[in-house]
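ok trying this again, last paste got cut off
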Amino acid sequence: QVQLEDSGGRLVQAGDSLRLSCAVSGRLYSSAVAGWFRQAPGKEREFVASIRWGYGTTNYVNSVKGRFTISRNKGENTMDLQMNDLKPEDTAVYYCAVDRNGQVPMTRSDVDYWGKGTLVTVSS
């Protein structure tokens, strides 16, 4: 059983940087994929970024490429999302997620475990 605890969300201004963290309890195999989704008010939850737990291969949605960086620390069982040059349209609840089977690209239906979410608000 895997449990995820995401944290780090807060109110920031446009152009600021913010780092989200996800603590993973339980074992993840190298083939698993961990990632971040976000859900803005009135919108569906969407994929943001993912990382292959073992190899570190990453994927990003086009709207965050060049601004967000996903990373993981296998020894500490943590995953981070470094978000730079934040924009008001990045405002959302961010959820960390794990797909044990490692499907790429990561989709909501493939996710086996979800964090509770952390709110990021970007003011203009």
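PB: full thing came through this time. The CA atoms of residues 48 and 62 lie 9 Å apart.
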